[in-house]
């Protein structure tokens, strides 16, 4: 089994405990920064999708409400002219 060994530029691990602690602190800060930045990006994306979905929902609701009110106006009264046509004796002979 191969092991990965971290080394510095010269090829050896630093022996100074202060440098090791500083590297650990920098690594932790970078990790926390990456997690926070990722959370911020995810929150912004979810916020954008929420606002876009809300706008789409309101737009569809508005159009269906508008179409429903127009249909009610049209269904309430029909204006037409008509003429009563009585069957004639020639119509019976043609069939």
How would you portray this structure in words?
The protein is mainly alpha-helical and 95 residues long. 69% of the residues lie in helices and 0% in strands. The chain has two helices and no strands. It has helices at residues 17-76, 89-94. The protein is rod-shaped and about 120 Å long. The termini are far apart.
The unreliable regions are none
Order of helices and strands: HH
In round numbers, the mean pLDDT is 84
Helix content: 55-70%
The number of E-state strands comes to 0
Task: Spell out the key features of this protein.
rod-shaped; mainly alpha; 95 residues; 69% helix
Note the topology.
Blueprint lengths: L16 H60 L12 H6 L1
At a glance:
By secondary structure, the protein is an all-alpha fold. The chain is built from two helices and no strands. The chain is rod-shaped and about 120 Å long.
